[in-house]
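Worked Example 4.2. Consider the chain below.
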Amino acid sequence: MTLISPDQEESEIPSLREPQKPKQGFWQSFTQRTPIGWKQLTKNKGRLFVAIAGIGFADLLMFAQLGIQAALFDGNVLLHRSIDADIVIRSTQYRDLSLANTLPRRRIYQIQDIPNVSSADAVYISTVVWKNPETRLKTQLTLVGQSVERPAFNFDEVNKNLDKLKQPDTFLFDRKTRGKYENVVATVEDGKTVATEIDRRSIQVAGLFSLGASFATDGTLITSQENFLRFFPERTAGQITLGLVKVKEGTDVQQVLSDIRAVLPKDTIAATKQEFIDFELAYWGETTPIGLVFGFGTAMAFVVGIVIVFQILSTDVNDHLAEYATFKAMGYGDRFIIFIVLEEAMILAILGFIPGLGLALAQYALIQSAAALPIAMTFARFSFVFFLTLVMCGVSGLIAIRKVQSADPADIF
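Applying the procedure from the previous section yields the following structure tokens:
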């Protein structure tokens, strides 16, 4: 038994002390707090639904702008990515495949004797107007003339049917061409040929491959170099579009590229395959208005989202102004109130992003089916739009709390 001295302070007696509460961490205190922001949002279900719909609509617009822009860029380099070469040679006047100036074929012969060059072949590319065998409507396609001795592209279906291209006016058709071609694809898959016309000249479709449409044309046709030149009598065999160079296995591509550049004159540019793709993307993104137009559309969707969220949060702040003033009168600072409003903003961002993402996925599927564009959701785009949504709602919340910060409890009561 412990004896207590009469003059001993009560606070010094262990058995009579006030029990000490353990200190709570940030996460524990955060999860155990009253979710004031959530309760305020769910109090008015109609307003919450409008806010979610508005944010979802803004996200849908941003997904649409960014997705279509990426699809247009990717569609314009589908053929570039499929090239089976390490180094690509082009004219200095080359801008893109639809504006591809020619270069002399002798440039190919000049580099064939360079050490570690395995092969160098010419490719002819241009656009033609062909007649849809089903609808009889005319449309523009990309026509490619390649060697029938060595593959020029990474298309297994094309490389297996190179012998068919030795026949006059025989072509391989892109099954992903934009338009109505179900019967054409089905007929060719059954081993039959389909007859149609290019510039009033009869041709035969004897095989298929899969690529996709681009911003410039609806699809692609591949044939031999000889068949290609029959449609362009004004163009000689010495005027090629691209030179495709493959280096020997295990060779340093950059060293071979340096040797090629030392041999070629200034009217020709040699670049790696990736550099060639980057050049094309830069042309469409910087020279054409595509990047500016879709970038502006994304910015407008972002601003629309800020306005919508601000209206919702501003109305909610006005409705609870008396409660916020009470908190301030009780000694709570502005930071406490700011946290409540920002909590509402972040909740709205998450709830609004979910339907926006779902609608965007459905939109991408519809565009891919109707326009034959290579559009799909990417993690980078998903993350970027989600980040923009958080910023959009956060900025709206910071604007909405300005009235609370300047409010005086004495004025409100």
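The mean pLDDT is 85. Residues 353 and 386 are 7 Å apart (CA to CA). Compare this with Example 4.1 before moving on.
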